[in-house]
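Duplicate of #3305? Posting structure anyway:
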């Protein structure tokens, strides 16, 4: 198959590191892959079957989203014997029944409630997490009481553990926190109750651990009746007394809560199907979440924006955390950056970064996905490196727990089959 057009990853020490699950083809490559002429390609584009972006440095030349081309190729058959990976496992047909999250053109819908509507209604992350876990909205939109069993965070950071800040530190910190909490489950027939308990414990522990990335370099104690968004912002050293900044963090958590069967979520379901405890399911999901084609790509975008100059984004087609195979423009990213732009704590450099992102969309059609928007949000609020990864993980933990519980209720082990292609 024709190779997709890509550029050298920004992190030159890892030349094989892929940071996006989004590739593009030239018009010649598309016509060769599909066996069509230019007129047919234009028809596909006009019908919205193949999405395009402007090629960097060229005014008229377009590039075409490879995922759309692959979908058309699979639909029409492949003389070479079919794709290496079944289309159902590459943003294709559903493979698992779920009542938790549905992906729509307007973004994820949590048990029938559009995430964008929940943000618009100023629902707290606690409200959304309980909706995802239990299927019904809470009667009161209140903060959680501190769960017993949220312990051990203080002892996780040894003297050599977290000198350097950034995505890698955040990843190690959360992985060690979650691993320390495995085997907290006790046998019970109330799986849903265990899920809520495990979810609150993990989220509160992760939020406390955020203090290691902040100016205090120590776990942050949760205040009485304090929402997770305010707790996180305070630990990371943000403007904890600014309601608009707290709203930005809450928006980030709500939009991060779930996105159907993303790779880490599928990992959580596979682990749950084997019978391990819910904390271990989150540990496994977190490991997949660290990959550069998931939230791990945030580290590359942080590197690219380290100087404060957003111009590298213009010339890099493979800008980390830009584009999404399921959306022409990620509505979660649009929502988050719009809320960030209204925040009174965003200073001049942050506003210039937000303006540069909008100019990039106008000039090229490229726009960050949620992961990229979280990095941009964190920079605009002056949060430390690694904050975007940690915030997204705190939010996504709610979804991982929900999917693990749902898979337990299914009562069967997930075990896909491979099509043997050898002799």
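Output from current build:
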């Amino acid at each position: 198959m024709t190779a997709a057009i890509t550029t050298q990853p920004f992190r030159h020490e890892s030349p094989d590191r892929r940071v996006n699950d989004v590739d593009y083809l030239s018009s010649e490559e598309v016509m060769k892959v599909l066996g069509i002429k230019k007129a047919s390609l234009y028809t596909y584009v006009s019908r919205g079957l193949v999405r395009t972006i402007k090629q960097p440095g060229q005014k008229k030349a377009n590039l075409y989203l490879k995922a759309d081309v692959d979908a058309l190729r699979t639909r029409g058959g492949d003389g070479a014997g079919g794709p290496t990976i079944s289309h159902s496992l590459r943003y294709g047909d559903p493979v698992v029944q779920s009542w938790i999250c549905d992906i729509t053109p307007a973004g994820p819908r949590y048990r029938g409630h559009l995430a964008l509507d929940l943000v618009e209604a100023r629902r707290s992350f606690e409200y959304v997490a309980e909706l995802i876990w239990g299927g019904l909205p809470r009667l009161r939109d209140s903060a959680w009481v501190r769960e017993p069993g949220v312990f051990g965070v203080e002892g996780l950071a040894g003297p050599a553990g977290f000198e350097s800040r950034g995505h890698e530190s955040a990843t190690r910190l959360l992985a060690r926190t979650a691993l320390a909490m495995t085997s907290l489950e006790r046998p019970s027939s109330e799986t849903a109750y265990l899920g809520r308990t495990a979810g609150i414990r993990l989220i509160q522990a992760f939020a406390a651990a955020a203090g290691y990335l902040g100016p205090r370099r120590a776990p942050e104690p949760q205040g009485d009746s304090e929402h997770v968004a305010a707790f996180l912002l305070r630990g990371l050293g943000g403007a904890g007394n600014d309601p608009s900044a707290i709203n930005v963090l809450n928006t980030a958590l709500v939009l991060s809560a779930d996105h159907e069967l993303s790779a880490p979520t599928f990992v959580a379901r596979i682990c749950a199907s084997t019978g391990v405890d819910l904390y271990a399911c989150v540990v496994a999901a977190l490991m997949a979440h660290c990959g550069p084609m998931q939230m791990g790509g945030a580290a590359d975008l942080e590197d690219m924006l380290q100087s404060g100059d957003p111009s590298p984004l213009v010339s890099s087609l493979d800008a980390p955390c830009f584009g999404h195979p399921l959306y022409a423009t990620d509505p979660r990213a649009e929502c988050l950056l719009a809320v960030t732009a209204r925040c009174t704590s965003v200073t001049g450099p942050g506003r210039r970064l937000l303006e540069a992102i909008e100019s990039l969309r106008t000039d090229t059609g490229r726009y960050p996905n949620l992961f990229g928007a979280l990095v941009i949000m964190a920079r605009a609020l002056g949060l430390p490196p690694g904050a975007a990864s940690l915030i997204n993980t705190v939010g996504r933990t709610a979804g991982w727990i929900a999917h693990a519980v749902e898979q337990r209720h299914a009562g069967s082990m997930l075990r896909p089959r491979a099509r043997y292609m050898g002799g």
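Confirmed duplicate; merging threads. The chain has two domains: 24-89, 104-423. DSSP finds 17 helices and six strands in the chain.
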